[in-house]
Amino acid sequence: RDPRASAGRRYRLGVMGGTFDPIHHGHLVAASEVASRFALDEVVFVPTGQPWQKTDREVSGAEDRYLMTVIATASNPRFSVSRVDIDRPGVTYTYDTLTDLRAERGDDVEMFFITGADALAQMFSWRRVDELFRLAHFVGCTRPGVELTRPAIDAMPADRITLLEIPALSISSTACRARVGQGDPIWYLVPDGIVQYIAKRGLYAEPPMISTPLY
Ligand code: ATP
Ligand code: MG
């Protein structure tokens, strides 16, 4: 048992999966809000391996996405980052993420998988949906521009899924990448350290900048 869990209560672990290319304040607000509302002991951010359903574009290297996630979460004592998905070869499935975290953290841990409304709407195409609901409670956060349709929610087990209204931040990684490519600022959309890291590594630049290998 983790010493940070209060006596007689299971450790409550939030799991925030994402491509994080780059991580932005929308991700951080969602994690913080769910942590507060669900009294989570910790939220672990899990950058995906070869991103699922994103094979249509070049995605930044896993190490860059991992390091940006570390930089963005470093100041919060309840936030951590896991390498389980980037260290597992191949496409990331949420089932594998949750199974690996369960194996790592033990059966005593109660898991809460945090998603935005768009990711939640896609859940039926996820692998082993029924088993997912046994592994974790799902928390779907509102996201500007995404309408969750009633039938999609009604088909999910009501006791294993919660929809949560969070402060609306109309920020996406796609828009951040496009802004960098056009030379528009991303200050205040992402943490300061991420602005600096992107510039230092030449990420998302148009034309592509030749950056030195990380390792
Ligand atoms: P991309 O544009 O590349 O898809 P993204 O901004 O959607 O990037 P992801 O890494 O795909 O970021 O998202 C990880 C998780 O965070 C998903 O569950 C997504 O729904 C959620 N999320 C991302 N941005 C927001 C936001 N602004 N508000 C609420 N949830 C968000
Ligand atoms: Mg997305």
UniProtKB/TrEMBL annotation:
Keywords, in A-Z order: ATP-binding, NAD, Nucleotide-binding, Nucleotidyltransferase, Pyridine nucleotide biosynthesis, Transferase
Cytidyltransferase-like domain boundaries: 15-179
A GO term, aspect molecular function: ATP binding
Catalysed reactions listed for this entry: nicotinate beta-D-ribonucleotide + ATP + H(+) = deamido-NAD(+) + diphosphate
Name of the top EC class for this enzyme: transferase
Record-listed E.C. numbers: 2.7.7.18
Pathway: Cofactor biosynthesis; NAD(+) biosynthesis; deamido-NAD(+) from nicotinate D-ribonucleotide: step 1/1
Domain of life: Bacteria
Gene3D superfamilies: HUPs
GO biological process, one term: NAD+ biosynthetic process
HAMAP family per record: NaMN_adenylyltr
Family label: Belongs to the NadD family.
UniProt function note: Catalyzes the reversible adenylation of nicotinate mononucleotide (NaMN) to nicotinic acid adenine dinucleotide (NaAD).
Name this protein carries in UniProt: Probable nicotinate-nucleotide adenylyltransferase
UniProt lineage: Bacteria, Bacillati, Actinomycetota, Actinomycetes, Propionibacteriales
Gene this chain is encoded by: nadD
